[in-house]
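DM between two lab members

TW: hey, do you still have the Peroxidase entry open?
JB: yeah, one sec
JB: this one, 164 aa:
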Amino acid sequence: MVKFAAIIPSVLTLVVSVTTALSIDYYDETCPNVDEVVGKAVKSAMSNDVTVPAALLRMHFHDCFIKGCDGSILLNSTKTNKAEKDGPPNISLHAFYVIDRAKEALESLCPGVVSCADILALAARDSVALEGRHGTCPREEKMEECQWPMTPLLSHSRSLTSRS
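TW: and the structure you got?
JB:
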């Protein structure tokens, strides 16, 4: 019984953290234009540089890989501290200007609200969605209702699998 009682706080912490996890409408009240602003920065960058989607996705991966998605990949080096972005595995990362431009625009609309880590996550999401926008999936739709380029092939594959 003692072991079970010791587990309860851990389980409650997990339940609370899951229920307060990521939310697509997190900034709806505090910065309602966040998606529009980040999307505009991404679209603008993509119109000038075809490598932006891959760069942002890779940057997001490198930010999240070690200690979670904290935006630390965006920090600049100082005289006394070499930043994560200047380390050997990250030296070839680029497109930081996309995040900088989105952050600048968001700071003028809703100062101190949207984190750089969230901007990076949104920018990576938007760039991949825009790059592969051969299908359609508005924000409001459930993922399973989206029409992606491979949907007909996947449906056909599932149909064949269910018959065997």
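TW: got it. Helices lie at 2-19, 34-48, 52-65, 96-109, 116-131, 151-163. Residues 28 and 130 are 22 Å apart (CA to CA).
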